[in-house]
């Protein structure tokens, strides 16, 4: 086979629209075959074409689960401390709004809503809308329950993999009558005691512009830390896979 029939890892990334980590994962699990040319992997074009046309095409475009890349065991305690210090609620989600961590410091109102199937679905929809905001910097918005939240992006090799979402408060300009009406609708929609929900809402803090700005600033700093941890871990895992692959191919044959 001539060299022009072999693709580099970068060419394969562009062809399959995946990142380098996914290429090596596919190599490890047998979805791809490759050969070593010096210290670099090369991939036969004919095999790639067959993969694209075959039944495994859908598997190629399935992005690796965010939990495979984000070290949740490291992120969770940092998120817990951040939420406790700032006296807000926080959660790290995938771009589709599905939570990757446990919710830190949830208020009673959120606990009541999240305890119901419909309420949890509504919360995830709100988190998804936040995670997919195009703005780079955190920007507060109102969730389905009328509380304020903002998000900071967590990217791996330039790709959005998660969002740190924090908030769980009213603004000091919030309209009490509108909030009461919303709570009544929430209680009916999610089959929650209206009296209990109203009591829980009264305990939700109201924050002014200065406090919101401080939360947004620290939210971005914590998310940047998560991003750095995740990128360093991803790079390390990629290097370990490369070492494992080289070892498998370069082990001398016993005579």
Give keywords:
255 residues, Multidrug-efflux Transporter Regulator, Chain: A, Domain 2, 2 domains, 5-stranded mixed sheet, 11 helices
Extended strand count: 8
Radius of gyration based on Cα positions = 23 Å
Report how far the terminal alpha carbons are from each other.
29 Å
H and E string: EHHEEHHHHEHHEEEHHEH
Mean pLDDT level: 83
What is the CATH class of the largest domain? Alpha Beta
As a percent range, the share of helical residues equals 40-55%
Q: Using the alpha-carbon principal axes, give the shape.
A: elongated
Number of domains: 2
Q: Report the portion of residues in β strands.
A: 15-25%
Structural class: alpha+beta
Low-confidence stretches: 55-65
CATH topology of the largest domain: Beta-Lactamase
Query: How many helical stretches?
Result: 11
Major β-sheet profile = 5 strands, mixed
CATH architecture of the largest domain: 2-Layer Sandwich
List the helices and strands and how they pair.
Elements: E1 6-8, H1 9-16, H2 20-28, E2 35-37, E3 40-44, H3 45-53, H4 57-60, H5 66-69, H6 72-86, E4 89-93, H7 108-114, H8 117-131, E5 141-142, E6 148-156, E7 159-171, H9 176-190, H10 194-202, E8 206-207, H11 209-250
Parallel strand pairs: 7-8
Antiparallel strand pairs: 1-3, 2-3, 4-7, 5-6, 6-7
Helix pairs in contact: 2-11, 6-11, 9-10
Explain what you see.
- There is one protein chain.
- The protein has eleven helices and eight strands.
- The chain is α+β, with helices and mostly antiparallel strands and 255 residues long.
- It folds into two domains: 3-64, Multidrug-efflux Transporter Regulator, Chain: A, Domain 2 (Orthogonal Bundle), CATH 1.10.1660; 67-233, Beta-Lactamase (2-Layer Sandwich), CATH 3.30.450.
- The strands form two sheets. Strands 4, 5, 6, 7 and 8 form a five-stranded mixed sheet that branches. It has a three-stranded antiparallel sheet with strand order 1-3-2.
- Strand 2 (35-37) and strand 3 form a beta hairpin.
- Helix 2 (20-28) crosses helix 11 (209-250) and helix 9 (176-190) crosses helix 10 (194-202).
- Mean pLDDT is 83; it is low at 55-65.
């Amino acid at each position: 086979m001539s060299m022009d029939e072999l693709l580099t890892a970068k060419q394969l990334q562009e062809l399959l629209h995946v990142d380098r980590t996914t290429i090596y994962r596919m190599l490890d699990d047998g979805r791809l075959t490759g050969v070593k040319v010096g210290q670099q992997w090369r991939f036969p074009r004919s095999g790639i074409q067959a993969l694209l046309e075959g039944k495994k095409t859908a598997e190629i475009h399935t992005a690796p689960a965010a939990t495979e890349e984000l070290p949740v065991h490291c992120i969770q305690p940092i998120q817990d401390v951040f939420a406790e210090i700032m006296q807000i609620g926080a959660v790290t989600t995938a771009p589709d709004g599905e939570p990757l961590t446990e919710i830190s410091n949830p208020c009673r109102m959120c606990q009541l809503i999240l305890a119901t199937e419909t309420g949890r679905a509504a919360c995830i929809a709100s988190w998804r809308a936040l995670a997919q905001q195009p703005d780079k910097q955190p920007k507060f918005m109102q969730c389905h329950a009328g509380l304020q939240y903002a998000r900071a992006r967590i990217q791996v090799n330039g790709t959005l993999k998660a969002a740190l979402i924090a908030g769980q408060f009213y603004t000091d300009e919030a309209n009490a009558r509108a909030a009461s009406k919303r709570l009544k609708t929430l209680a009916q929609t999610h089959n929650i005691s209206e009296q209990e929900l109203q009591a829980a809402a009264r305990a939700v803090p109201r924050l002014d512009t200065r406090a919101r700005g401080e939360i947004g600033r620290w939210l971005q700093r914590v998310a940047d830390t998560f991003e750095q941890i995740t990128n360093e871990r991803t790079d390390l895992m990629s290097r370990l896979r490369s070492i494992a692959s080289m070892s498998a191919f370069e082990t001398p044959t016993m005579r």
